[in-house]
Amino acid sequence: MSELGENEARILKALQESNGKATPSILAQKTGLADAAVARTILNLSSRGLIKELVEKRTEIQPTKEGEQYVTKGLPERQVAKTIAQSGGHLNPKEAVERSGLSLDYVPIVTGWLTRKKWGRLEKRDSQTELIVEKEPDKDSDEELLALIDHKTLTQEELPNELIVSAIRLIRRNILESRAKNDRRVEITDTGLEAASKIPTFSVVTAVGTTTATATVKVGEVSNLTGDMIASGEWERMQLRTYNVSSNVPNTWPGRLHPYAKFLRSAKQQLIGLGFQEVTGPLVEYAFINCDCLYMPQDHPAREVHDLFYLKDPNKGDLSIWNGTVDRVEETHENGDKTGSKGWRYAYSRQEAARLIMRSHGTALSVRAMLSKNVKIPGKYFAVARCYRPDPLDKTHLMEFNQVEGIIIDPNLNLRNLLGVLEMFAKEIAGADKVRFKPDYFPFTEPSVELQAYKQGYGWVEFGGSGIFRPEVTIPLGIKAQVLAWGLGIDRLYMMNKRISDIRQLFSPDLEWIRQQKID
Amino acid sequence: MPSVQFNLKDLEDLLGTKVPHDKDGLNKLVAYVKADVESLEEENGQSTVSIEVKDSNHPDIWCVEGVARALRGYLKLKQPKPAIVQGPSGFSITIDKRLRSVRPYIACAIVRDVKPSEEALKSWISLQEKMDQTYGRKRRKASIGLYQADLIKPPIRYTVSSPDDTSFIPLGSDTSMTLRQMVESHPKGIEYGQTISKHDNWPLLIDKNDKILSLPPIINSTDLGKVTTETKNILIEVTGTSLETVQDTLKIVVTTLSERGGKIYSCTQKYPYAPTKTTTPDLKEQSFQVSLDHANKLLGTNLTSKQAIDLLKRAGYSTGKVIGDKITIGVPPYRIDIMHQVDVIEDIGIAMDINTLHPQWPGIFTVGALTPLTAKLDNIAELMVGLGYQEIMTYSLSSPETMAKKMNMPEDEQIELQNPSMTTYTILRSWLLPSLMEFLSNNTHVEYPQRIFEVGQCFARGPSTPTRVKDIPKLSAVTVHATAGFTEIRQALDSLLRSIGIEYSVRPSTHPSFLEGRTGQIVTKNQNIGTIGELNPRIIKAWGLSLPVGAFELDLSLVLNLN
After folding, report:
1. Which of B135, B302, B342, B412 is best to mutate for the A interface (most A CBs within 10 A)?
2. Run of H or E including B213
3. Average pLDDT, chain B
4. Residue B362 to residue A282, Cβ atoms within 8 A
5. Does the model's pTM come out above 0.80?
6. Nearest residue to B36 (alpha-carbon basis) of B50, B19, B46
7. Which of B349, B394, B446 shows the shortest C-beta gap to A507?
């Protein structure tokens, strides 16, 4: 047998000291362990056969709202009896009830109980029915029970027999209410006792006011249905203990995908369904690929330290593998080269191009796709890209975030096709009701279009940016076709779906929240 | 992205017509200039609007005058005659040869008969700031100065001075300061001083009577360089390191001022080096050719040349001859953003209103797929879920504290960011387990057992990798509860690797984060692919946990044989 854990030892010891039986709450009290810890330890111990769990049914009784009043003022029949006895021993029933401060609805009830309890009787005097109560009656068992309960809760099974009858009566009268309760009690087994005796003594919180538990297991009853019993048919001769199938059980948490990761995966599946091929690429990227290939001039404000994470060491990559491309990109930036453009007209720096940064947008992966030897025309490519931006982490900013980006390459694409793609995404992926388009700006696309989607309950939401790659982008990369490029704000879409207002929840550090997310 | 504030009444005056006063209506309107309404406030019957212009390469619309000019076309309102140079101002600027290595270029102009309103002054100052910041690259490439022309006696000398030999009263100060004092203590000096501070001699603008105009590109003198609503004639000066940017900036400023009725007069610059002599501003239109075929192909339209010409005019271009499918257009001097005919074609699309184009899904048949790597990583995540582990997502940026110190690991070999935005995220993570521990430390109040995993990217130096840093996908899994231990975590590892067909063994080893005698290297084909074991209680405690932790970490690039 493997060794006992500390909690297990404590529980066994506490059980041994409680004559082998105790409720979990008493064990918690005795051991000083938290309730959840006790519950877990009990499960462990019982699975090892060191203890048995018994479930005892009992009925808790307590006064109803109406009953609470009677605890203070006495039962209505008592109140009325008192009034009559103090008013000369006889009164008209209505008058008696009214004088007692009760509503007239009580007349039949009170008359009924007074006569049934033999505290009084009805008599005709001067052609009028009168209630006669000669003297204040003694306390009866109903009242005794009420006094005993006071405003608390009692266990019906613990009452003496005569009070049980009262309890049933008062429950019927809606003065008391009852609730069935299952008390879990734990009993130490013989092996458990043996194990407990080997535990060195350590200080245990002294128990206060324990009650003696009574076992409810019948003689000859078994709790575990074993393989042997089934094989031998012996189970038919045995009395299998019945379980309380409606009682609660301890939690168990399944393994699950992270809700946001799952969402990203399903977005990928949707894009695959639309014929897009996935592209991946390095997270540490050249400024060349992240910016230069996208025709962002090297001294552009968007390339400063507040927009890109630069690496300290290593800080430059090996550009030689892109030699021909670097030449063309350089010429294009400086003078437009063969693109028909004037270019940015400045002195291009290969040192700057070689700098290493953390990928700042998914479009870097579209560049990777176009640079690939295997690029197909026509072709459709997408990426779900982890991207980085040197923002401080707060409610609306993440340093690491995700973008869904894609391109469609074909010689015959136009702005209307771009709008068609955007409309499809908004309706298929975001479930938008309507879309509209707005002119937008990116250094690498012309024309550029912002997609706005309308969703019932949200209004118009900016949903993504897109455009047709400039010739200054495609020609140096050797792409002789039009390229539609689009990017969707997938983080925002998820937040909208899950009604999350704090963007940090995407990478939620909260296990409880993750466990409780419903699977749609 | 530049943000432009203005009064709606001012925009209406410039347009000569009413505009919507509600946010939706305004948003629709400013969509023509690629802008969104950021805020709309009404006070004392005056509506002030702030719009964010998305185009960071279109400085002529970074002010209300430019917005109005662009909208007039799109709204088919009457356009005033294009701004022209009325004639020479009689001002000339001589340039000191020592400026060649400091701040070589200057372009000036005079705008007469302006008398700006408060609104106009606000707009110009804000345009000046935005252009200095972005288009002028924080005043390095170009910076703008405005002066009271009537107080200045030509010729102006653009010269240099040693930082301690010259002093004047700068704007925003009551006392005279030396140039060095300005760079060291004046707010503008602190902000922009680095553009000149490395030089021995600093630029200076002086008039014929030795009155100082300014210390470009830092600050004007308060005597000459303060423009008010009383200023009728304004001298505009742009200095910088790029001749083209300097001259383009001047074009935008003078055309903006002329939108308020100012008349533009040229100045002459005489250089002891190239370009020797310039007369600025040059407000000639640039001739440009647009192919109608290309426009129709790119927009998906069937425009006739007549329709195209009409749309081009609305977008602010003048149009000339049409030969074949080629339309010759004139690009206004302030449209410094036009580099390629696609820029003009987009303007045709905007003039049409892109919402009138009929969207058309491109019927291109292709087969979609995940990359093999993604598919494999997803399979591993699926297996871990089957083993009862909860997937988590953590950041791939981290700190030496998390990656090394709290894990009892050496701090060498970290890949650091040059410009971290937070002190807790300064390096690229090298392994996953610390990210998982950090997660667990945030969840000590949550019900146990806790079993979590992540498939995530880690980083390592890769001298033979072109980007010098290798992305390494890793898997780490952790089980934490009262009876967690080696057997349980080893069962998970075993089950996982068996499911993907990897034969492996665990070799006893030591690891600074794990408990000696209860840790091992995961080895396949004599290659170390990971670590497994029970965490050292000191590490457990360092993370604020108090239960046993079983963990493993696998290098998936090796497991999946990717290298």
Report:
1. B342
2. strand B212-215
3. 94
4. no
5. no
6. B50
7. B394
Count how many pairs of residues, chain A against chain B, have C-beta atoms within 8 Å.
Answer: 285
Spatial CA neighbour of B478 closest among B516, B432, B429: B432
Q: Rounded to whole angstroms, how far apart are CA atoms A214 and A253?
A: 34
The DSSP bridge pattern shows strands A221-222 and A459-469 to be unpaired
B464 touches chain A (CB under 8 A): no
The complex's ipTM works out to 0.92
φ, ψ of residue B508 to 5 degrees: the values are -55, 135
Task: Give the span between the Cα atoms of B385 and B380, in whole angstroms.
Answer: 9
Q: Is B467 in contact with A284 (CB distance < 8 Å)? A: yes
Residue A471 preceded by cis peptide, ω within 30: no
Q: Which one-letter amino acid corresponds to residue A217?
A: V
Q: Which of B300, B341, B378 sits opposite A417 (nearest CB)?
A: B300
Strand partners, B214: B205, B220
Instruction: Give just the sign of the alpha carbon dihedral A93, A96, A98, A100.
Output: negative
Which tens digits make up the pLDDT trace of A161-198?
888 888 888 888 889 888 887 777 888 888 888 888 77
pLDDT tier for residue A205 given thresholds of 50, 70 and 90:
very low
The number of angstroms, rounded, from the C-alpha of A221 to the middle of its chain's C-alpha atoms is: 40
What is the least distance, in Å, from the CA of A380 to any CA of chain B?
7
A443/B394 touch (CB, cutoff 8 Å), yes or no: no
Q: Is B412 on the interface with A (CB under 8 A)?
A: no
| CB contact (8 A) between residue B443 and residue A512 | yes
**C-alpha B260, offset from chain centre:** 31
Tokens read off for A453 = 């989607």
Residues B352 and A439 sit within 8 Å (Cβ to Cβ): no
pLDDT digit string, tens, across residues A412-459: 999 999 999 999 888 887 778 899 999 999 999 999 999 998 888 777
**Beta-carbon separation of B349 and A415 below 8 A:** yes
Chain B interface, mutation test: which of A416, A503, A515, most B Cβ atoms within 10 Å?
A416
Closest Cα in chain B, distance from residue A210 (Å): 28
Give me the half-sphere count of Cα atoms (radius 13 Å) on the Cβ side of residue B26: 23
Between A328 and A244, where is the model more confident? A328
